[in-house]
Design goal:
Layout (H helix, E strand, L loop, with lengths): L50 E5 L1 H4 L27 H9 L2 H5 L3 E4 L3 E3 L4 E2 L4 E2 L7 E7 L6 H13 L3 E6 L19 E2 L10 H4 L9 E2 L11 H9 L3 H15 L5 H16 L3 E4 L8 H20 L11 E4 L11 E3 L4 E3 L7 E4 L2 H4 L4 H12 L7 E5 L16 H10 L3 E5 L25 H6 L2 E2 L2 E2 H17 L2 H4 L1 E6 L3 E9 L2 E9 L4 E6 L9 E4 L5 E3 L4 E6 L4 E4 L1
Parallel strand pairs: 1-2, 1-16, 2-7, 7-10, 10-11, 11-14, 14-15, 15-16
Antiparallel strand pairs: 3-6, 4-5, 8-9, 12-13, 17-18, 19-20, 20-21, 21-26, 22-25, 23-24, 23-26
Helix pairs in contact: 2-4, 8-9, 12-14
Length: about 575
Amino acid sequence: MKLSYVPVLVAGIALSGLLASCRSATSGDKAPEAAPLEVSMDVPFLWDNANIYFLLTDRFNNGDPSNDINFDRSGNTAKLRGFEGGDLKGVIQKIEDGYFDKLGISAIWTTPWFEQIHGGTDEGTGITYGFHGYWISDWTVMDPNFGKEEDLAKLLEVAHAHGIRIVMDVIVNHTGPVTDMDPVWPPEWVRTEPQCTYQDYESTVTCTLVKNLPDIRTESNQDVELPPQLLEKWAKEGRLEKEMEELDAFFERTGYPRAPRFYIIKWLTDFVRKYGIDGYRIDTAKHTEEGVWSELGKEARLAFEEWKSAHPDKVLDNNDFYMVAEVYGYGISGGRMFGFGDREVDYFAHDMDAMINFEFKHSARMPYEKLFSSYSELLHGPLKGVSVLNYISSHDDGGPFDKERKKVLEAGTKLLLSPGASQVYYGDESSRELIIPGTEGDATLRSFMNWDEIESNAVRNGVPIAEVLLHYQKLGQFRRDHPSVGAGTHQMISKSPYIFSRMYEADGYADRVVAGLDMKPGKKQIDINGLFEEGALLRDYYSGKQGTVRDGKVTIDSSYEIVLLGM
C-alpha cells in the first residue's frame, strides 16, 4: 500500500518512542489544542476507520465575501434559510490552518456545490434559497456562491497534501424546486406527481419526495433530448458545443441510452475524472432504483482509476473509490438489508461500501460495553467486508443524540470510539447550538459555525467549549492513527474499571490499542491483557503521558478519567 504523508501523533504498533505532549483542557480566552507531531508513518488509511467531517459549505467559513450574493438571491427568507456566505475557500483556509489535522479528520464531506435554482420557494417552513446545495439546476458547473472550479481544484490539492480525502455529495433522483425563475424540466425527464407516501417500494421510489421537487425518471431507458433551458444556458455561457461533444463521446464509449440517469452519471463522474474526488455520499439513495447505484459506481470507479493513472504523483494510496449511502431509516441492526414493507434491498450489493447508520443516535444511549461489543459483533459478522457511518447529529435529523448539548463529552467518546466509521457534523466538536429560536424545521440544525465561541472559549451547559474541542482532538487523532479503533475487533478486558482492547490485522500490518473509560483521576493501573510485550513503551493519547509495560500492566498518572493507550 502506498502511504501518504500525514501529520500524526504516533504510529501503530510498528513504531515506538515517538512521543508528543498534548496540552490539558483549560479555560481562557482561546481554546487549547492538541498539536499533532509531524511524522511520516506507515499507518494505512481505511475507510472502515475513517473520521469524516460533514459540513454545510454555506455555513462553515466565509473565505470570499465577494461571492456572497449571486443571481439576485437577496430576498427576505425565513430564519437561517438564505445564503450565509460560506464557500470552498473557507474550507481551504481551515485545512491550511491545520484545524482538521488537529481533529484527526481523515475525510471531509461537503454539501453539494453544483449550481442551485435561482429563485426561492416555500415548502411550509418559510421562503428558502438553495443554500444547502440539494436544489440543483445544472449538474455541470459550480454555484458561484460556493466558489469556482479553481477553488474545487485547490480544495482537492490542499486536502490531499494533508492526507485528507474529499467526499462529494451527489443527487441523482431530483432537480431543484420549480420557481418563477426555474422552470420545470420536460416531462420525459421528470415526474411532478404522485408524491411519495412511503407505504412500499413503489410509493418510495417512483414518486416525488415532497411537493414541488420534480423526480428524475431514473427508471427510464428512453432517449431524451436535453432540457431547453439547459441548452439555452450553455449557449449563453459559450460552452454548448463543448458540452455536446463530451456527451456524444460518453454515450459512444459506454453504449448507454441517452436516458436521464446516464446524463447525470456522466456529469457527476466528470468531477472525479478531472479532480480526483475520493468518494461519493449518495443523497436519498432509497428513492432511486438500486441498480442505478451500480451503474454510477461502475463509472465513478473507472473515472477514479483514470485520474490516478493521469496523476501518479498525486495518488494517496491504493484505496478504491468510496461510496456511502443515505438510506433514511437504515440501522446497523438490519445487517445488509433495508426493508420497504413489500421487499428488501441490499444496497451493499450495489456498490455501496458503507451505509449511514441512523440507529446510532439510539445506540449511543447504551452503556459503553453494550454499544461497542454489539457493533463489533455486527461489523465482523453479518456486515463483514462492509461498514457503517455513525453520527450523533446531522443536517436533517431533528432528533439527534444530545440535541441540547448537555452530554457533549459522552457523545464525542461514544462516536469516536465506536466500531465503524465516524461522522463529525460541523460544530459537534464545539457544542454548536442545535436549537435556534425562530427557526422552522431543519434550519435549526444549520446555523453558522461558531468560530467566535471557539475563539472566546465560551461555556455551554457548564462545559468550556475549549474542553469539548480538545476532547474531540485527542479522540480523533487516536482514531486516525490507529485503524483498530474503528476497523478492529473489540474485547472487554475489565468491567470495573472499564477497560477494553481493539485489534486489527491485515496485509502484513497489525495495530492494537487499549482504552479505559470512567476511570478515577490520579494514578491508575491498566491491564493490557498481554497485547504488548513486557517493557514496551506505551503512550496515553489523552494525557500525553507514557508508561512501560511491567508485569502485564501500565501505570498512568493523570488527572483524566480516560486513558487511550497505543504505541
